[in-house]
Amino acid sequence: MDDVFARFSDDRWDDFLDELDKIRVTVVDPAERQQVKVNARRDAREAAGQPLLVRMAIADHYLNLLAVGVWAGDESWRADLRDLVISLVPEDDQTRDDGLLSSVIAVVLAQLLQDARLRGGSEADVIARTAWEKAQEWAAYAEDRHVERLLHHSTEAGARVVTATEVQEVVELATAAADDQHAETIAALEAEGFTAELMNGVWVVEGDFRNPVRAAARAITLTGYGCVLARNIRQSAVMLWHGNTLAMADSKVPRWRVYPVLAPVTPQSKFSGGEGLPFTRDTHPLAPAPEVVRRLADAVGVNLSHLLAALR
């Protein structure tokens, strides 16, 4: 562990931000960046066994190095920062300043969520999601006075910094998630431009999208197993997804179409081709609904007659 972090070993919470100011750097010689990254990764690996304030200081140091461009063009920082923020979640018996700790966690989560989505499938998305699931409940208690001092500012080429607005968005989502188990899903759907509401077990999404079938496929990929009704002023589409089976119907072609959906295929990728629907031999009249559709509706807990009415 770098000796620079020894000053944080004494559990002096009142001095933490002042001590951070003393170790922050404003520039790193490009010739030294590779070794700086090696040292930062070593400190991150060793952080778990260190006092909580040391772990917080190491996390801020990572943010500092991102701000001065050390990781320009290199995304490998994400996994280390994920592990660091997870390590910040305290044990019940640890002495701490909850507002300060929560503020550090909120800033780190905001950094991980830059260019990443909680419901996406990229490596950055998955890393951010893992960090969020482990640490988000703490982010809700961040305090503006601490966040302001934890933010980094830089004009270096390749710099990565988060803004107060980005941190506030994290805090608001964490607060909403504490009150509403569906807050993250709604946020993910709204980020796609959908207006979303959960009604009797059905995610109803509306918007100015041209193709409700594709909108339904995107929405149900984000929400996971369940049921989505996507509609615009001209057309509506329904999808039911459970296990490896997806059924869809739309108001233009009133028939059920049933598809296998086996990972890594998702509903979104299944319906991302041309304008037409993907081929299947497994088609059925809209009503009476076939057994496979009735089983899917039962499995995800929705009223099939209500879905049929929405398609008429």
Write the layout of secondary structure elements.
Blueprint (H helix, E strand, L loop, with lengths): L15 H8 L9 H14 L5 H16 L9 H12 L9 H16 L9 H17 L4 H7 L13 H16 L3 H9 L3 E5 L2 E5 L5 H12 L2 E6 L4 E7 L2 E6 L4 E6 L6 H4 L12 E3 L5 H10 L3 H8 L1
Parallel strand pairs: 2-3
Antiparallel strand pairs: 1-2, 3-4, 4-5, 5-6, 6-7
What would you say this structure looks like, in words?
The protein is 48% helix and 12% strand. The chain has 13 helices and seven strands. It has a seven-stranded mixed sheet. β3 (226-231) and β4 form a beta hairpin. The model has no long low-confidence stretch (mean pLDDT 92). It has helices at 16-23, 33-46, 52-67, 77-88, 98-113, 123-139, 144-150, 164-179, 183-191, 212-223, 267-270, 291-300, 304-311; strands at residues 195-199, 202-206, 226-231, 236-242, 245-250, 255-260, 283-285. It has 312 residues and is α+β, with helices and mostly antiparallel strands. The protein folds into two domains: 3-179, no CATH class; 187-311, no CATH class.
Low-confidence stretches: none
What strand order characterises the main sheet? 1-2-3-4-5-6-7
| Radius of gyration of CA atoms, rounded to a whole number | 24 Å
Give the DSSP E fraction (strand runs of 2 or more residues).
5-15%
Q: Give the biggest beta sheet.
A: 7 strands, mixed
Shape: elongated
Secondary-structure-based class equals alpha+beta
Order of helices and strands: HHHHHHHHHEEHEEEEHEHH
Share of helix, binned: 40-55%
Oligomer: single chain
Tell me the count of domains.
2
Tally of helical runs: 13
Q: How far from one another are the termini? A: 66 Å
